[in-house]
Amino acid sequence: MNMPTATQAATPERILLRLDWNVIRRLDGLLQGDYRTLFYGFGVDFADLREYQAEDDIRYIDWNVTARMDTPYVRQYVEDREITAWFLLDLSPSVDFGTVHNQKRTMLVDFVTVIARLLTRHGNRVGAMMFGSKIQHTVPARGGRLQVLRLINDLLKQPRLSRAPFTNLKPLFEGALNSIKRRSLVFIISDFISEPGWERPLSLLSQRHEVLAIRLWDPREVELPDVGMIVMEDAETSEQLFVDTHDPKFRRRFFEAAQKREQALNDSFKRAGVDALSLSTEEDLVRAIVRFAKQRQQYRK
After folding, report:
1. How far apart, in whole angstroms, are the C-alpha atoms of residue 245 and residue 275?
2. Interacting residues of 21 by C-beta distance below 8 A, sequence separation 6+
3. DSSP labels for the chain?
4. Are 62 and 49 in contact, with CB atoms under 8 Å apart?
5. Would residue 114 be called left, alpha or beta, if left means φ above 0 and alpha means ψ between -120 and 50 degrees?
6. Are 86 and 142 in contact, with CB atoms under 8 Å apart?
7. CA terminus-to-terminus distance, the chain
8. How many CB atoms lie within 10 A of CB 147?
9. What integer pLDDT is reported at residue 52 of this predicted model?
10. Tell me, which fold does domain 12-43+80-300 have in CATH?
């Protein structure tokens, strides 16, 4: 069999074939089909309410009942055979950052394809909301291989926004809150370069659904190489600035600012009760997913 190369046209069929061969087969061997370490707690329906106990997950507290009864109550769920998963996809200009073959958008497409394929081949349904400066396109949740191909096709057709107001993820999370009624598995795939204000709707979303945040990043956003004077351009606003990367103090300040932003994001995810995977454009996708599975397995112990 001749496998498609990176230089061939990126059609939905070629992308799915490449990832089936290079990623999903390897994952099957490493995880031995035990994807529950990745998708813990999904596919459940509400069953009953009971008083909160010390070992309970605070994400299952029913705040309306708690307020009425003046004591904490948690929702209990029973497992359902069918899973519905939603991808909330940030396609704002900053997601196009990276090298020719390693853009954050490329990693986003690959991750969505792999997870959608893993879910649909076991009879589950997947849907997506695609976001630029607003929710631009919604793919209703369905199952099957054709649905995976549709997701890829619709992603490839989404326009790249060259100039836009600074991204605000709040409308994406609020749109998901209003649209996704049944408890679902929700993947948020974004670099989380956004105006503030998205933390509260994210927290509300995680109270209703199992939410996983996939944070895309590129090493050049964290540590600048020493290449002398360069022009840096804001991917969101297209503003340009001349900087001297030869200056070690400037490179150190740049690195410290990136570290501070990463810590602030991790704190926001923890407050919202959301598990997060940090996904670099230069990281092997198989290793990243296996690392995430182990991380979640340890967290649940």
Report:
1. 35
2. 3
3. -PPPPTTS---HHHHHHHHIIIIIHHHHHHHTT-GGGTSTT-SEEEEEEEE--TTS-GGGB-HHHHHHHTS-EEEEEEE-S--EEEEEEE-SGGGG-B-SS-BHHHHHHHHHHHHHHHHHTTT-EEEEEEESSSEEEEEEEEESHHHHHHHHHHHHHSPP-SS-SPP--HHHHHHHHHH--S--EEEEEE-----S--HHHHHHHHHHSEEEEEEEE-GGGT-----SEEEEE-TTT--EEEEETT-HHHHHHHHHHHHHHHHHHHHHHHHHT-EEEEEETTS-HHHHHHHHHHHHHHHH-
4. yes
5. alpha
6. no
7. 43
8. 21
9. 82
10. Rossmann fold (3.40.50)
Contact 44, 78 (CB under 8 A): yes
Q: What is the pLDDT of residues 178-231, one digit of tens each?
A: 999 888 999 999 999 888 899 999 999 999 998 999 999 988 777 666 555 555
Take residue 87 and report the two structure tokens written for it. Answer: 């991808």
pLDDT digits (tens, 9 = 90+) for 9-33: 689 999 999 999 999 999 888 876 6
- List all residues 6 or more positions away from 238 whose beta carbon is below 8 Å from its beta carbon: 162, 163
pTM score, whole prediction: 0.78
